[in-house]
Amino acid sequence: MFEQVLAAKKRLNSHANKTPVLTSQTLNTLLGAEVFFKCENFQKIGAFKFRGAFNCISQLSAQEKKRGIIAFSSGNHAQAVALVGNMLGIKTTIVMPNNAPKIKLAATKGYGAKVVIYNTETEIREEVTAAIQQQHGYSLIAPFDNKHVIAGQGTAALELFEKITDLDMLLVPCGGGGLLSGSAISAKSINPNCQVIGIEPEQADDATQSFYSGKLHSIPNPKTIADGTRTTSLGHLTFPLIQKYVDAMKTVSEQAIIEAVKFHMLRMKIVVEPSGALGLAALLSHSVKAQGKIGVIISGGNIDPATLVQILENKI
Ligand SMILES: *Cc1c(COP(=O)(O)O)cnc(C)c1O
Predict the structure, then answer these.
(1) Residue 226 Cα, ligand 1 centroid: separation in angstroms?
(2) Are residues 301 and 190 in the same domain?
(3) Which of 36, 180, 223, 264 is most open to solvent, judged by the fewest CB atoms within 10 Å of its CB?
C-alpha cells in the first residue's frame, strides 16, 4: 500500500499545495511536549480531501472522464471533487445534505459542479446518488472507501514525516477513516515505532467502537459540531486497514473540540474547522497523554463564519 502513497505523491506533485508544518511554543510549554501541526487547512479547497480526489479522478479512463463523475458529501469531499472535475474538464454532480454548512455549499457550486440537495431525515444519500449515477453512467468518487482516495490522503502524513521523521505519536481525525488509514500506512512504513492514534468526537464514536470490538459499528446521523466526521461508519477497505496499522482510537467531547478551534484561532492565528481541531482537542483535554514529539494532522479549515463567531464569543 505504501507504494501507492508514493505514486500518489508523484501524481499530486505540481497540483496540490505543500502545506506548512506549524508549532506553538505556548502549547509545547503547556503540554511539556513538542507538537508539529501538518496544516491541511492550507490545502487546495481548505482540506486534505483534494489529495484523495485528485489521485482517484486523474486515474479514470478517457471514456469515464468523458461520461462524468458524481459524489455525495457533507462538504469537503464535495469541494474537492468539484475542483478536480473543473481542473480536468469533467462534468461533475455533487449530492449534498440539506444541513451542509453554507460556505461548503457555495464553494462547491462556485467550482462549477451541479449540486443536488437531499433531506437527511427522509432520504438516504447512497440511494439518491445511485439513481442519478445509473441514469447517466457517471463514475462514483467515494469519499473514503476507495484505494486511490486512501493512497492520496496518505500523502499529507508522508510530507510531515519527510520533515520530522522521529515522531513518537501521530494524531489523526477520523470520520470514514480514509485519512486515518492513509496516514497510518505512511507512518508505519517510515517509522514503525510511531504510535498512530485516531481521534473521533464522543458523539460519533462508531470507529472507536468498531476498533475495540472488532465488529463494524455504525451511528446514523451522528450529532456533532465536527461535520467532517459525521459519517455513519468506517468502510470495508478502511476498517481492516485501521485494525492493522492504527494503535489506538480516542474520543473528545464537543466542548474540547470548541476549545481547540479557539486555541488554533487565538494562539496560532489559524482558522481550523471543528473536525480539523480533533487532534489538538485530544491533547488539551488529556484524552491523549502528551509525550515526546507529536504529529497532528489539521485536516481542514472550512468553518461557517457564523459558527466561528459563536465559538469565539463563547456562545456555543
Ligand atoms: C473528511 C474529513 C475528515 C474525515 O476524513 P475521513 O477520511 O472520512 O476519515 C476529517 N476532517 C475534515 C476536515 C474532513 O473534511
Answers:
(1) 9
(2) yes
(3) 223
Count of the separate structural domains present in the chain: 2
The cell numbers describing 129, all together, are 446518488
Ramachandran angles phi, psi of 230, nearest 5° = -80, 30
Query: Rounded to whole angstroms, how far apart are CA atoms 87 and 271?
Result: 26
Nearest CA to ligand 1 atom 14: 228
- Ligand 1 centroid distance, CA of 303 (Å): 13
Enumerate the active-site residues: 49, 74
Tell me how far the alpha carbon of residue 153 lies from the centroid of ligand 1, in angstroms.
10
User: Measured between alpha carbons, how far is 312 from 259 in angstroms, rounded to an integer?
Assistant: 9
User: Last residue of some domain: 111, 140, 169?
Assistant: 140
The CATH number for 208's domain is: 3.40.50.1100
195 plus 302 within the same structural domain? yes
Nearest CA owner, ligand 1 atom 2: 228
Identify the domain boundary among 81, 113, 140.
Answer: 140
**Ligand 1 and 300: CB distance under 6 A:** yes
Q: How far apart are CA 198 and CA 181, in angstroms?
A: 9
99 and 9 in a common domain: no
CB of 49 shorter than 6 A to ligand 1: yes
Q: Is the CB of 180 under 6 A from ligand 1?
A: yes
Predicted pLDDT at 74: 67
Which residue intervals of 33-101 are DSSP H helices? 49-57, 62-67, 76-87
Q: Residue 278: what pLDDT?
A: 98
Domain that holds residue 255: 2-47+147-312
Half-sphere exposure of 276 (CA within 13 A, CB side): 27
Q: Is 146 in the pocket of ligand 1 (CB under 6 A)?
A: no
C-alpha distance across the termini of the chain, in Å? 41
